[in-house]
Amino acid sequence: MSKPLFQTEIQGISQACLLRNGCDAENAQAIAGNIAKAELDGCHSHGMFRLPGYVAALKSGKANGTARPEITAGPLGSAVIQVNGCGGFAPLALQQTQAALIEHAQSIGVAVMALTNVHHFSALWADVEPLARQGCVALACTAYLPAVAPAGSQEPFFGTNPMAFAWPRKDKPPLVIDQSSAAMARGEVMIAARDGKPLPPGVGLDQDGNATTDAAEVLKGVMLPFGGHKGSSIALMIELLAAGLIGEAFSVEAKRRDNGDGGPPRGGMFFLAMDPSRFGDAAWGSHSDSFLEELAGVDGARLPGDRRYQARAKNRNQGVCVPQSLLEKITQL
Amino acid sequence: MSKPLFQTEIQGISQACLLRNGCDAENAQAIAGNIAKAELDGCHSHGMFRLPGYVAALKSGKANGTARPEITAGPLGSAVIQVNGCGGFAPLALQQTQAALIEHAQSIGVAVMALTNVHHFSALWADVEPLARQGCVALACTAYLPAVAPAGSQEPFFGTNPMAFAWPRKDKPPLVIDQSSAAMARGEVMIAARDGKPLPPGVGLDQDGNATTDAAEVLKGVMLPFGGHKGSSIALMIELLAAGLIGEAFSVEAKRRDNGDGGPPRGGMFFLAMDPSRFGDAAWGSHSDSFLEELAGVDGARLPGDRRYQARAKNRNQGVCVPQSLLEKITQL
User: How far apart are CA B23 and CA B29, in angstroms?
Assistant: First the structure.
């Protein structure tokens, strides 16, 4: 492990690495900011661990490190904002279009952003938290590469298909849910494989379709959806929203056209933003806050995202230790 | 078991029962239609089994059997349609407002309907399937009465909080997902308790917080969410959408104001409808159909809702057998 690194240091190292490998300043800054946020929140699987993947996608020419998103349609007379990511990475595309989404949701109550032609490799909570900080209820999802078996089968077919939901609170940080449709996030399985740690049961099957707790075997085999057929249905819904609806690739299609460089495939993202002040209840904020406080008071229960916020507060002061081997790998890049 | 009853017979018996207990013709027809559809699809837990609950809510005066929904705000300059259910049951409220929701989604791509002050006691798939049959992608959810423990706790706090998702297909019936946030639908647990059948493990805890497969004990104790903390987060998201956002009661609040007559509490429903032809991909239908056919071809996988459609085809010809004791109970009502 390294000595503790602070958020600005992580951002600086990541930014330098991305700049050197084909990102322009704005893309490097947006991606590095996202990586530093993930490390700060203790989400190491979406932190510097992802840099080699970003670099692979840049080096192979699959992703465009100098892309800017283009709003191609909406919002005049429509609740749908269509954005072409132009083959770039998601962080800058989202940074540059989020104002349009929020503005439109505030104007007519509900807006959907359909983002296509983009490479998403980051934590989804980081994409919805800013929307809720600006007052919107937000729901986001994205497909990926086939890694999860539909309930009852043994074949990688769905992506790990994360969904995130953010709810604005008045004097508190937003409530943020972010969960993979897999029984465990793929990034966590990758970390477990790297560290040689066993998985809990029910996470995946090996290449022969047998249950295993060996992370490396699961990465070669297939992951299972969370919650059996119900989690499987959510993975399916995400495929339909983030691919079928918006005209992008389903996870199985993304793989067929991907060059296998290890970086994120090209795909789409679905964002729903709603302005709660447009739904008829002026007291929505205090009403929901009381409810969330009651929930937080239930013995054994906890609010989603609270652990991340705790890690954020702690790591902001103390810094984050990164595996030395990872730092060396990044320096070499 | 009764002799096989056909859809029209089930509808007729249910309608007569509701008319005799305080529903007007239109409400009786809408509710009975919903009950008959549930029986036809093999969802007995949402069929005639629910009639005593409807009658209880009518007799106690909690629900208004002659209510008409009122569209109170939208859609001019807004993507949000606010509907006051006026204390009636959901089936007629939805029947009379669904055209407005579809029309608005077709007009601007996305629309949300916030339905408040309504008593929902029916299957949610029956509420979204018609939206998809008319070309919309639909997402619906509703809270209920506290029955499910947040992950890590033993206290009934969330409702069984179903969500339904429907996806239109060209020459096929829509793909429809309908799932409770509980590990098993409460209606199914009630049926198991009635029939004295054991539950699979993981469905719930008894009054002392111990795991049990005894359905009657789970009804006295607490149900668990599906998929651990991920299902728990979905139950929470549904509370926030179907109560917090639209100004209605959270499940814990619904219980506090409910008279405990056994009928459905007053609460709210959240509907999102989207017109896929407004998202920029003219080929969305064939693209998604190919994907769904590929999924259906995966060994061991099945499309959500297919079992119901199979039951529907079979039961339309053969009729449905209803427990004699239930029929007698309904006749007495």
Answer: 9
Name every chain A residue with its beta carbon within 8 A of the beta carbon of B151: 301
Tokens of B111: 């629309």
Mean pLDDT for all residues in chain A: 95
Lowest mean pLDDT of A12-16, A196-200, B138-142, name the range: A196-200
**Candidates B141, B240, B289, B294, partner chain A, best to mutate (most A CBs within 10 A):** B240
pTM: 0.96
Kindly state the tokens that stand for A98.
């989020």
In the block, tokens 């017979």 appear at B9
What SS3 state is found at B14? helix
- pLDDT value at A319 more than 80: yes
Interface touch B299/A72, C-beta < 8 Å: no
State yes or no: is A253 an active-site residue.
no
Rounded to 5°, the CA angle B320-B324-B325 comes to: 130
- Classify residue B222 by its DSSP letter: E
Is the confidence at residue B190, as pLDDT, over 90?
Answer: no
- Mean per-residue pLDDT, B147-170: 96
Neighbour tally for B135: CB within 10 Å: 16
Q: Please judge whether A246 and B177 are an interchain contact, meaning their C-beta atoms are less than 8 angstroms apart.
A: no
Q: Of A267, A147, A265, A240, which is closest to residue B292 (Cα–Cα)? A: A240
Which pLDDT does position B168 carry in this prediction? Answer: 98
Size of interface A-B (CB pairs under 8 A): 209
Split at pLDDT 50, 70, 90, the class of B288 is very high
The answer to whether A15 and A28 have CB atoms below 8 angstroms apart is yes
Task: Name the maximum alpha-carbon separation found in chain A.
Answer: 56
Q: Are A208 and A222 in contact (CB under 8 A)?
A: no
Q: Is residue B75 within 8 Å of B81, Cβ to Cβ?
A: yes
Q: Which residues sit opposite A204 in a β-bridge?
A: A212, A223
- Contact in structure between B178 and B139 (CB atoms under 8 Å): no
Token pair in block for residue B268:
């709210």
> Could you give the 3-state DSSP secondary structure of residue A143?
coil
Distance CA B158, CA B46 (A): 20
Q: What is d(CA A322, CA A326) in angstroms, rounded to the nearest whole number?
A: 7
CB-based contacts of A306, cutoff 8 Å, min separation 6: none
- C-beta separation of B274 from B110 below 8 A: yes
Helix A51-59 and helix A7-20, axial crossing angle in degrees, nearest 10: 20
Q: Which residues touch B248 (CB under 8 Å, ≥6 apart)? A: B116, B117, B143, B242, B267, B268
Taken in order A97, A99, A100, A104, is the CA torsion positive or negative? positive
The partner residues of A73 in beta bridges, in order of sequence, read A82
- Residue B79 distance to chain A (closest CA, Å): 5
Q: Can you tell me the mean pLDDT for B245-260?
A: 97
